Amino acid sequence: MRDGADRVRTGANRMQNGPAVFSFWVALVFFPAADLARGFRWTEAAGLAAVTACYLLGVRAAFERPAAARAALAALAGVTLAGCAVWGGTWFYLCPLVSIACGVVLRGRAVPVALATVTLVAMAVTLWKGGGQDAVAAVAWGTGIAGVVVHVTLQLHRTRRELATAAVSEERERFSRDLHDLLGHTLSLMVVKAEAVRRLASRDAAAAARQAADIETIGRRALAEVRAAVSGYRGRGLAGELDAAGAALREAGVRAVVDAGEVRLAPHADALLGWAVREGVTNVIRHAGAAVCEIRVREGREEAVLEIVNDGAAGPGEWGNGLRGLAERAAAGGAAFEAGPAEGGGFRLRMAVPVPRGDAPRGAAPGGDAAGRPGETA
């Protein structure tokens, strides 16, 4: 169920961010429009309006209605190449729009076929209009490379999402295996001893009591083992989470800048900030589409402060389950927590944990000096 919700959120993020990014390139219409201002022709104005409408419709529908997007792409290609043939000149600046739309709208083998076709037709029209070798090369380069870059970029984003999903699935399987290994034998032994207690209760109370004591001992040992195993998943401490965050961001193609200074935290603050690092970095990898993520930790006289800032999408205003759970943990631990759009774009998560006065001497965060390397870049 959670996987389905994640897919829905991923699709929503693509629909919100994709059209806005690719719509920017419609600015190429400015070049033939500027020429049109010097010698206005209604037919050419109608052609430019059609190119603009078809391109914007195509890139928006690509994330919601693929059939409509393909129809808009076909119309865009026809109008653009016809305009190049009739008016020439700066209309050739619009050929990259067609290739960009091909990279956004089409999938699989259709992309290279469409890009090659559009590029060859644009080159042929350039030659037909009397363009020289340099003009043909410029049209071929601009038309071909624009679509290739867009297509490869989208493929990388899809691959990154698939890798993140596979990593979550692998972690769940590992957790299931570990729990089975921990509890399978122990629970079987407890069942055997419970049956022995039932058989002995009526004829040998002392033996039954010994079996019951064994059950208690086995149960306590199993509980300790489960707690130890779960702590490996749920609370590695700040230093361990910083190391894991750097590795995870690097695998996702995000540059991590970690600045933890010489932070030495009490166990409570260390665990809480470790939780915040894990959840914050998970959000960056799965939802933000960021290029850079900065993680800063500072300890003052009154509080230890963690900030995670990325340059990706700020996301919807409503928090998801992870951020809500983190806010609840912060409230329970007396910490201040906030998460939302950062100044200048991106997303910012901040948690401030009070530093108790008169606390026991604090050791370094678990994991040695891993959290004490300022400016670490992954």
What secondary-structure arrangement, pairings included, does this model have?
Elements: H1 2-23, H2 30-38, H3 42-61, H4 66-86, H5 95-105, H6 110-128, H7 133-200, H8 205-234, H9 237-251, E1 255-259, H10 267-288, E2 292-299, E3 303-310, H11 321-332, E4 336-341, E5 347-354, E6 376-377
Parallel strand pairs: 1-2
Antiparallel strand pairs: 1-6, 2-3, 3-5, 4-5
Helix pairs in contact: 1-3, 3-4, 3-5, 4-5, 4-6, 5-6, 5-7, 6-7, 7-8, 9-10, 10-11
Describe this protein's structure.
The protein is an alpha+beta fold and 378 residues long. Helix content is 66%, strand content 10%. The chain has eleven helices and six strands. It has a six-stranded mixed sheet with strand order 4-5-3-2-1-6, covered by helices on one side. The protein is elongated. The two termini are 33 Å apart.
Helix percentage range: 55-70%
What is the strand arrangement across the widest sheet? 4-5-3-2-1-6
**Tally of DSSP helical segments:** 11
Task: Please state roughly what percent of the residues sit in beta strands, choosing from under 5%, 5-15%, 15-25%, 25-35%, 35-45% or over 45%.
Answer: 5-15%
Give a quick set of tags describing it.
378 residues, alpha+beta, Single alpha-helices involved in coiled-coils or other helix-helix interfaces, Heat Shock Protein 90, disordered C terminus, HATPase_C_sf, Sig_transdc_His_kin_sub3_dim/P
